[in-house]
Amino acid sequence: MTYRSPVTDIRFILDHVVPLAPVAETEMFAEATPDMVEAILTEGGKLCDEVIAPTNRDGDLTPAKLENGVVRSPAGFKEAFAALAEGGWIGIAASPEHGGMGLPQALNVGFNDMLSGANLSLQLNPLLTQGQIEALEHHASDEIKALYLPKLISGEWSGTMNLTEPGAGSDVGALKTKAVPNDDGTYAISGQKIYITWGDNDCVSNVCHLVLARLPDAAPGTKGISLFMVPKLIPDDAGKPGVANSLKVVSLEHKLGIHGSPTCVMSYEGATGWLVGEENKGMAAMFTMMNNARLNVGAQGIGVAEAAYQQALAYAKDRVQFAPIVEHADVRRMLAGMKAEIFAARSIALACGVAIDMGRATNDANWQARAALLTPIAKAYGTDMGIRVASTGVQVHGGMGFIEETGAAQYLRDVRITTIYEGTNGIQAMDLVGRKMMDEGKAAFRLLQEIEDEAQGAREAFPVLAEDVWQAAEELREHTEWMVSQGMQDRFAGAVPYLDAFARVLGGYYHLRAAMAEGRDSARGHLAAVYIRRLMPAYAASLAEAKEGAEGLYALSVEDLEA
Amino acid sequence: MTYRSPVTDIRFILDHVVPLAPVAETEMFAEATPDMVEAILTEGGKLCDEVIAPTNRDGDLTPAKLENGVVRSPAGFKEAFAALAEGGWIGIAASPEHGGMGLPQALNVGFNDMLSGANLSLQLNPLLTQGQIEALEHHASDEIKALYLPKLISGEWSGTMNLTEPGAGSDVGALKTKAVPNDDGTYAISGQKIYITWGDNDCVSNVCHLVLARLPDAAPGTKGISLFMVPKLIPDDAGKPGVANSLKVVSLEHKLGIHGSPTCVMSYEGATGWLVGEENKGMAAMFTMMNNARLNVGAQGIGVAEAAYQQALAYAKDRVQFAPIVEHADVRRMLAGMKAEIFAARSIALACGVAIDMGRATNDANWQARAALLTPIAKAYGTDMGIRVASTGVQVHGGMGFIEETGAAQYLRDVRITTIYEGTNGIQAMDLVGRKMMDEGKAAFRLLQEIEDEAQGAREAFPVLAEDVWQAAEELREHTEWMVSQGMQDRFAGAVPYLDAFARVLGGYYHLRAAMAEGRDSARGHLAAVYIRRLMPAYAASLAEAKEGAEGLYALSVEDLEA
Hints:
- Chain A is an alpha+beta fold.
- Chain A is built from 21 helices and 13 strands.
- Among the domains of chain A are: 7-153, Butyryl-Coa Dehydrogenase, subunit A, domain 1 (Orthogonal Bundle), CATH 1.10.540; 159-280, Butyryl-CoA Dehydrogenase, subunit A, domain 2 (Beta Barrel), CATH 2.40.110; 430-552.
- Chain A has helices spanning 7-17, 21-24, 34-52, 56-61, 77-86, 105-118, 120-139, 142-154, 282-318, 329-362, 365-396, 408-415, 425-433, 442-457, 463-483, 488-493, 495-518, 523-535, 538-547, 551-555, 558-562, and strands spanning 65-67, 70-72, 157-162, 178-181, 187-197, 206-214, 225-231, 233-235, 241-244, 247-252, 263-276, 320-321, 323-324.
- In chain A, strands 3, 4, 5, 6, 7, 10 and 11 form a 7-stranded mixed β-sheet that branches. A two-stranded antiparallel ribbon of chain A has the order 1-2. The first copy, chain A, has a two-stranded antiparallel sheet with strand order 8-9.
- Chains A, B: Its cofactor is FAD.
């Protein structure tokens, strides 16, 4: 199977569906001209297709290994990572001040989408580094910035996020890792962290750990958490990797998928750390890291779905049962559905990227609220969709899909983690109906109004599709009005289906925009009809579930669940 | 995790939801008294819990191996299989004439459900043997019956089904394996077969292959296919395994899941075979095998879902994040949904079993049509649901779910095959809207009428739930009326969502019956509300998709799909 990066679709979406043009009109992103966008996506796509994608199976077949305390990457990863680093791809969205390209996040999302389709395991390495770069840009001292950012942006060093501990997952505030002040202004970090992605690797000359830890006598919970930079090798006076810090990789996890990505159990034993941001304000910095990562995890789901789709389509064209199976109605249904869902999720993720860029460049609170609203949707829908599409990809292959050599199953195994990490999709949904509705739904209503207005304007050209989208947005608006008057428990009980409904309405909206750009009898017009008529209607069932609230769930006691 | 067979739920369903009582009133199944049912399920459950389930992880960790042409089962499988065989469990539904228990298929379905939850890989061994037993009972000569049936039923020997070839999957008629008549009435079988489940094993002293092959000058397609018994070791005059036949296991597949079950590539090189049934009538015998297997593959999905659910619930009670996560609304939603879906699918499968038994015992055409109608629904919904629930099981575990040692991921990997084999779920759905609607929907309408009548009667006790079920059945009836007037291409394009809608309405109906039996404030009443109010409503979206027909799918050309 030859993976081909979805350059055309990403370009089309940024041109017509969620236009990047207003971003390029800002001073901050003036360099993001159409020519630059074209060059970035084309060159990035080429790298993904020719250099990165060929390493994907190797990552699965020869997983990362821990040898004498050092992680060995799978065959080919070192070279592929070097190509990524040399091209400056890690720092697409990083500040030019320290060597980044300073381009819009929307382009970074597009690149992460393509890179995830090429090799999800490898993509995780720069993804975590990107989160760290953003956290340092916002919260670190000038000294730390000057020392670490150029190396992280160039890919000389890589970054990790150390949040989770055995007893502290979603409840980050329960973490126990300790930070004790040393006399020289540094801190001694001690504790165990788990699920540390790319916690060590031989693609880079140093690994920089951002570690959440607790100062002596810090307040309990999230208010007593501070963030520290804890490098594997302590930089010497010249900024070169020096003596080894007191930390180690204890073991690698044996996982369902992303075998190429080493998931480490880390032990810190009085390791030297430098405070990032203020004492006890670690959560704010963590959210900076995670916000970037959440959107780009959404892009992971989309990228893997794209690769799974391409492979399923190639197989369906090739495989003859009576006729090439792509001609069978049910296979056609599966493939068209996959393509339509990918387009919807990709549009949502890029819309979120554009909103982030507009929020940063203009400081407009509405854009910032739009970005905040779209982030959990982009993450959860992109990854839920990724699992659905990868599973359908297996199904299209029939028996061959269950055979590992085919590669279809790897996509399913790999993408399965994406609904879990960077905050489970349940957490994303609770963020949507909770924090993101603290404005009483204002940001949501603004977006829904925009959808209704657009659908209104599209009625003449697309009487059926426009009416469907308008109606769906209207029902979602009504539901949202009802929801913001409910207590948190009832919101939370319906959070996941509510998010799904929101995403489907958005997907229908963006498909409608695509159809408007290309016309009714275009391929995009037909694909829009597939989405709006066949896949979007599930929003109603999701809203029905969301409206049930919590009571019925708790009517079943734990004993009832066990019976 | 300690697996506990769902004896209580199966008993309850057979008592109150899809009563076995009418079956026990027939002469054929007079032995299936309540005491016998109790004894069978309790003893079967005990065997599954204590002897079979403890081998499940070993099957995954130490897969079946091919050593010098012989398959070695995983650790513990031989002993577990011996216990199954000794208890007579392989022949629960087999004719007493050759040593079977002659009990209803409904009980066999219940047992297969429990056994699949305990160890899916191992369950496949007797499952295939059961299909072979049924094929021989219906189609083989008395000589073959006398020789093979007692050994298959006792578990001394095991059976396989050899249909698929590299170019002939869903298109069985494309197969190329040859059968050339020998002078002594036997046939020389030559060809390659793939995906042969338990194609060899060391749990038994002989492996009996039922092989589809083509006589010289046979008609092309399915009309030129005959069925042959091709034993691994040719029985001597005393019926003992004698000289080796000219067949071999070429290799084992490397699969996503069911690692404990050897999936063989088989090569027949002029192997001696005996005709089963008439020349060129092999497809009929194959359908006998497959019909049994299809329903019991549905039971596989249900059993694995049960095991995944139990493990997720145990984890959710134990894992504390703020509070035990079972107390979080979204986790509660996931668990309640899993339990409700399992109950729905289990009821459908047992209803199908009861219909098969009634059809056999009474020869009533309505019961037979009911069985035929429910078989593809039981298979497809049981297995689709199995994947959904196993995937949700992973999600409930959070990051732990992605770690292989947890075991949650194994359920997802194992169950993923069930929507593919014994006819993909797409094929099941086409069977439903095609062959099973050749009566212009009569069997479906009879069932829907029954649902509407029951719902009508339940309105007083359950005003909301009964109305929901009535309404859903009514919409399904209207859709079915419309559908039977459509051509096959349009039916096929909507077959999968139509089947899903049908299953959800049935699920709602059976939940309503359960609620009626126990009352509104009972655990089953609450669970019924979860299903009917939260999960059943997706039927409407499925019907909307089904109603779109084929046109919109083909409006997207293959080139459009590639763009």
